[in-house]
Amino acid sequence: MRRRHPLRPRAPALPLLLFLAVAVAPPPAAAVGVNWGFAASHPLPAAQVVRDLLLPNSVPRVRLSAASPDALTALAGTRIAVTVGVPNELLRPLASSRKAAAAWVHDNVTRYASGVLFEFIAVGDDPFLLNHGQQFQPFVVRAAANIQRALDDAKLSSKMKVVVPCSSDAYQNTSTLPSKAYFRPDVNKTMVELLPFLANHSSPFMVELNPILSFQQKKNISLDYYLFQLMSRPISDGHNKYDNYFDASIDALVTALTKAGFSDMDIIVGRAGWPTDGAVNATSAIAQSFMTGLVNHLARKSGTPLRPKFAPTETYLYSLLDEDQHSIATGSYDRHYGIFTFDGQAKYHVNLGQGPMALKNALDVDYLPSKWSWLAWKCVICLQQLLPAA
C-alpha cells in the first residue's frame, strides 16, 4: 500500500468546482465510510442499523468503535467493508499476552471472517490524545504487533491490515502552517516504533481529525476555512496555499511523517465530522455544510499541495448515530456527532453513497414506554408539599 510520489512544494491549480454551489452533489469518493459507535443508552438494534441505514443509503464501508457481535453478525454477507476497533482498555492485556491477542482475534475476527469483509483492525481509540498523557502509549505498538501475529497465525493477514488511530493533536503545533508541524516530543519514542511497524506491513497511518476543536482553538481563522467555502485570502505556506482545514491537516501530517523519515506512507482519515449540538457553531446546518464540502472535496481526488492527486486512501465520516453515553472529555458536543439521531432519523443531508436522494431513515423504531410524565408530576407534588404556603 505504500506509494512513492514527489513531495516538492507547489501551488495547486484550484478547480473551479471548488467555488460553485451545486444543486446535485457528486458521488462520494469510493473510499468514504462512516463511524458506528455503541455508547448509547438506547441503541438501535444492530440488525436494524444495517437493514434500515447502511444498506438503503449505500454506505460502502463502516468503522466499528468496538467488536460488537451483534454488529458483526448483521454485517455478514453485506459486502460492506469493515474496520473493527480495539478499545484502549484492552491495550495493556493485549500487549502483555500473545495468547490474549490470539483469543481476541479468534473471537472477534476469525469467527466472522467467512461472511464479514474485514479491512482494518484499529488498535486503540485515539491512544495518543493529549488528554490521555502516557496512559496508553507504552502498550500501543506491542498490542498492535501481537494482533498482527495472531492474524498471521490465523492466515488472515493478507485480507486485512492493522492500524493505530492517531489524534491530530499528536502532530499539530500552535502554528497554522503545515510546514511547521512535527510529532509531539512525548510521542516521539512511540512513533519510532510505530512507523516502522506500519511500513513493514504496508499499513497506512490512520489520523483522527477534530475540526470543531481546531476552530475553537484557532481564533484567527474563519469558519469558512473549515467548511470548504471560498476564501478571499487563503493561508500561504511558502509556495503552497491552503483554503481549507482538511488539506492543511493532511499536509501537516505529511510534514511530520517526512521529518520522521516516512514521507511516502499512505494516510487514511479515521474520523472527520462536525457536531450538531453542544457548542457554539454546532448546528445541523453547519454540520451539513462541513460534511457536504468534505465529501465533494474527496470526490474530486485533487489531493493536497504536498500530495497533488493523492487524497487520503480512505476517509470515515464521524459519525453515524448520536451517542448519549460518549465521553465528553473534549466537550459535550462529543455526544452529538450523529448524521442520524439515536433512533435513526437523519438530521441533515449528506451523500453517503445514495447520491442526491434523501437519506433513508430507520423504520418502525421500538421506543421504551414513557414514564417521565408520571415521574415529573410526582416531583411537582413533592415540591409543592415542601415549599411554604404563600
Provide a compact summary of the structure.
The chain is built from eleven helices and eleven strands. The protein is of the alpha/beta class and about 400 residues long.
Structural class call reads: alpha/beta
Q: Going by CATH, what is the homologous superfamily?
A: Glycosidases
Q: CATH architecture, please?
A: Alpha-Beta Barrel
| Count of individual helical segments | 11
Query: Kindly, what is the distance between the CA atoms of the first and last residues, rounded to a whole number of angstroms?
Result: 76 Å
Q: In CATH's first tier, which class applies?
A: Alpha Beta
How large, in whole angstroms, is the Cα Rg?
22 Å
> pLDDT below 50 for ≥5 consecutive residues: which ranges?
1-29
How are strands sequenced across the largest beta sheet? 5-4-3-2-1-11-10-7-6
Using the coordinates shown, work out and report the CATH topology.
Answer: TIM Barrel
| Percent of residues in helices | 25-40%
General form: globular
* Range of strand content: 5-15%
Overall domain count: 1
Residue-averaged pLDDT, rounded? 88
What string gives the helices and strands in order?
A: EHEHEHHEHEEHEHHEEHEHEH
In total, the number of strands is: 11
The biggest sheet amounts to: 9 strands, parallel
